[in-house]
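Key idea: predict the complex, not the pieces.
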Amino acid sequence: MGLAMGIAKWKRRVRFWREHVRRAGLLSEEMESHLAMKVADLMEAGMTERDARSEARRQFGSVTRQMEESRAVWIARWMTDLVQDVCFAARTFRKQPGFTAAAVLSSALGIGGCATIFGIANVALLRPLPVEAPSRLMSISRSYVKTGEAGDTMSYPNFLDLRPARSFQAIAGYFPLVAATISSNGEPQRYWGSLVTANYFDAVRPRFALGRGFDAARDDTRGEAPAVVVSHNLWQGRFGGDAHIVGKTIEMNKRRVKVVGVTAAGFRGTEVAMVSDFWWPMSMVDQVSILTGQKNSIADRDDDWIWGVGRLRDGVGMKEAAAEAEVIGKRLAAQYPAPNRDTSLHVETAGQVNAGLRRGVEAFFLLLMAVTVLVLLTACANVANLLLARSSARQKEIATRLAIGAGRGRLLRQLLTESVMLALVGGAGGYLLAFWAASNIGKFRLPFPIPIDLTVTLDHRVVLFSAALAMLTGIVFGLAPAVRATRTDLTGALKDGSAQGGMLRRFGLRNILVVAQIAVCMLLLICSGLFLRSLQASRTAKTGMQNRNVLYMAFDPSLNRYTDQQSRQFMAELIARAEALPGVESATLTTNVPLSLAHIGTRVLPDDKLADPAKNQVSAELYAVAPRFFETLGIPMLSGEDFRADMPAAEDVAIMNETLASKAFPHQNPIGRRVSYQDRMVRIIGVVATAKTRSVGEDPRGSFYVPILRSQRENVFGVTLLVKTKGDPAAYANAVRQAARGLDSALAIFDVRTMETHLRNALILPRMGAAMFGLCGAMALLISIVGLYGVVSFAVARRTKEIGIRMALGAARSQVLGMVLRQGLGLAGIGCAIGLAMALAVSRVAAGLLYGIGASDWVTFVLTPLVLIVVALVACLIPARRAANLDPTTALRYE
Amino acid sequence: MGKDKARNELLPGTLDMLVLKTLTHGHLHGYAIAQLLQQISGDVLQVEEGSLYPALQRLELNGWIEGEWGVSSNNRRARFYKLTPGGRKKLSSDTERYKEMAGAIARVIGIA
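Result:
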């Protein structure tokens, strides 16, 4: 059959289907007319009207059946069957709201968990960049030949040597951690953006809402007229979607910058999670404070800071491009061995998690997925169990239908329709759950100030995933109960519903499912318990900082193009103003906020080991701080003295913590000694107690403190003002903010927070772990309790007669109660034991993630099973009491 | 299900062919088709008359016949069917196949 004919037939089919009501009317008219003609003919041949009518009908056959068959021509039979099944299922669901709610809730929880994780993985790992032909866009980074790691930055001269690579139409460079203050249109605020080579948009090719990208011929020239492309986000949020913004100038870092384009919604750079809201061309490299250190970031081959992104030439594959990049990398290593030793260049599809992190991120998602799949399995086991229970209760109905000639296939289909419907409704619920979860994940705040966007948006892929998962679970977990239900022994079932296997069989499918559920539930609850205990331990953990009533306020004077002199003056004055506020006990500054998860590192070399730097350098966390830093945070001074504002500027001084001191000067007094730090000799004037620096759970780390007011180095994280207050520090937020504004109204102030908030954010990992396992564990608990309750109460219902007989023969109520309880708790006990064994094995692996408690924390391992057993007891008690309160006479007369 | 027997006397699929064939005589309504089938076959083919109608629907869906409302000789509203070009092609290919099949069966049974 030709395609055209096929299409014509489908068109007719659709038309028939649409008109089937009208056609049915016409067809019956047609058949009426047939019969009338037949009757007329028969009467003409001499029959009486009555005989003619019955003869005509006899020869015609059943009008109803012909109607049915014609209808089957118009609408495929499976469709009518489906509609029938769905209606029937809906009716039975309405009649059993308890069962329906339990089944839907179970699958919603299970599918919701999986959909959430899939949604996150979708954003992090799967979703392509919103650019033209995203699969042709490659990211190019520096790799290490020895370890095989990749994803590092390269130097600008290296990048220029890479650029002519023949596999690419265009290679652009970018640096995605540029902070800038925008002071036009409202309060000055800091935004994050990228510094890019002028051909960036030609290579990446996002869509533009307005305007265009940069002028490749001009915008790479250092010092050319400043230009900016802004994101849709910034355009809407800051400039109210001004349709005429292109061509206007805005104030960024107190400089007039011309807006040349607005990218379309969705595009925020080529990094995953790290988002850009504006793009500056390379001509503005001198505006980026982090790149204007001691090195010349454009000319120095040992200053690595840029990543490459390139669009493949048509017909060139990723492998060829990677091979060419590797050749270039080798050539660079040979030509400039010092900065390029053992490094090469690595090519991979852009828009993925950085190659250096990917393995970890994938492992993380696999772990999350494994946990949620466990929850899903318990949920499915529940649904299967409920279906099994229900199908046994419906044995009579099913047997009757089989007896009057319903096909087994037809019944199977009907039962599967029911389970798939339950799962689909559950899937819809699960999607809503994922939606809720995703919006909450976006609320997690990272404790360090880099532009990471954790917002998870769910797209059509997540909808499809939920629907497919629902279909799959509906079919897979509906199949066994359906097959079992239709394999009824007809005569037995019709005689008496309880004739078949009245007891709970010891290894029945239902019991195994319940045991498995409880085991999984136990595992998840113990994991969440461990995380909660770890969270609790880290909350009360000693941070080495004794003060809690401290307010943090971050700002970045370098963004307002302060000279070093101005910056120093500004900071000194800010401290003075803050300390002058009533209720403020002390104020100080730091470039590095303790417990931010991030860190700034440095190396120091003790004065007695200067001869062999490579061997004797000690690495440390670097803090550039103002006087009274230790006093403000409550870090005890062990010996020596703090920095003072009136110290002679000529001398370089520093303070160490105890840990660093014992490493750099073991068994010696470090006070008065010197260390070499950043090619200068500095004198140690004090030693302080060791405080936690990156995370609460860390082992003691060495820290090195230098005075901020004289330090030449500022960093991308800006400067944070720490203010110790009397009473609640949050109450001082406005006054401190006003003090800073009074000094410079164009200064962007960001991240005003109390120490409590900061510390809570610092616990993001244990918090997320506890939240996830806690949520999953709670779901699993709910699910398996519903399951246990269902199985036990079903068993009681099935054994009504038996229990009646026992009681009639003299069994006491307490005996009946005990019998039912023993049965339910037996299942729970076996599940608990298996779960405990699994949890012990898993917690050994998870030990690395836990802080402050052992992997086999006895509190968790004792409390959790207790809780589970108590809850199981309650779940069994309800049906057990029902059994014990049976009236033997009613029970025996039952059915 | 005794009623099915009458229908089963026809070889499966032949009803469609027979209906198409009768329509080569011109535009006919359902009753006329039934009568014609009976007359031509000399009352041998006992087709349950009603079973014509699903067959007509099927043929129409396949685009082999077209139906339109008209008035019968004795002034009743009736639906008249006519062959489409596709229907003619279908008839001739079905006839070919049937001839082959019948010949083959005849040879096997030994009456040819």
